[in-house]
Amino acid sequence: MAGTPLPESVELLEKLVAALKRRGVLVEEDIARGQAQAERAKPETGARMVARAWVDPEFRALMLRDGTAAAEAFGVAMAGAPPLGVLEDTDRVHHLVVCTLCSCYPRAVIGYPPHWYKSAAYRARAVREPRAVLAEFGTVLPAGVQVRVVDSTADYRWMVLPTRPPGTEGWSEEQLAAIVTRDCLVGVTLPVVERSQAAA
Amino acid sequence: MDSPDPDRPATHDLGGNPRFRCTPVEPDDDAPPSDFDKRVDAVRAVLREKGLFTVDEMRFNIEALHETEYFSLTYYEKWLRSVTAVMVRKGVITWEDVQ
Amino acid sequence: MGGRAVSHGVQDVAGARFAPGARVRVKPARPERVAPMHLRTPHYVRGREGVVARALGRFPNPEDLAFGRPGEPRILYHIEFEQPPVWGEGEVGDTVLIEIFEHWLEEA
After folding, report:
1. Would you say C24 and C106 are in contact if contact means Cβ atoms under 8 Å apart?
2. Do residue C96 and residue A148 have CB atoms under 8 angstroms apart?
3. What is this model's ipTM?
């Protein structure tokens, strides 16, 4: 839920931080470092991992076998982080990621989750009417494709490895990564090839 | 946890909840986090890294919020309330510290 | 009690009770009526039957961690449920895949 915090919440934050500092629990430096670290995580990382998996079968196998190690291969510090799981879309199955109980999100490889992902509407509806939710994102699946909704209820954080769209033959990894958006990585959209981009 | 009817799912256990059946998801609701949001997030991360609480403790304390607050507070306000609660419960700070 | 260590490589699933493909039922339990609880088994699958996709590894029990108790490591599974039986609606063939701890599962 987007929205402005209440004045009393802003005050509470200040009082909490002041108390923690006064009691020697943390210093301002710690907070700055924590924020900088969170800001480093970006959806481009997940996109690059997908692009690599599309061109390199060994990396694809690594992603599916050990998502955490695959993220580390892209420079993501995963020590102390929850394990990363990768969900492989096929021409028969499309995955959609949600956390009905709170809002678990694969932050390490995508960054801050968008408000809609954390909303009661998404959390309530994604597991029950996934196709209607996909339609709100303009996503219609090809005939014969099953939806598999993945509810992140425990330790793993899940990201989707979409199928590589036709019309991308011969593309560089950079070109491939550019069509994998943050929303593709949780399965609400599919990577799209603009007509003008399609390989001859 | 404060469900008026004990047979209904807990407030946070939202999967399939019919109350939101007709609520659109709003794909454009994706503004970046505010300074307040990022600061709350960073404080949470620092305290977790210092071993002062686990994500499980934080989740429980969010789940313990009254239903009205659960749906009216912003996402990061709930985190702030929960982190504060855990710190007080553990005696890292006192309730007077945050009055 | 800091962040849990990340498991690398193949997850520790030795001693898992259920094999991939096994039909299991989620216990129709309501522990939250005993005491305030932190549960990660959503209400919508309690008492429901599903199929084991695979064992995901061994993790400390969040039900304990939430109260500052050390969490006994337990096997976590990915269990797949058909949509229509859960909701009374939905497309045949669509499923929900959920992480569920072993102590919540019994043979179907």
Report:
1. yes
2. yes
3. 0.92
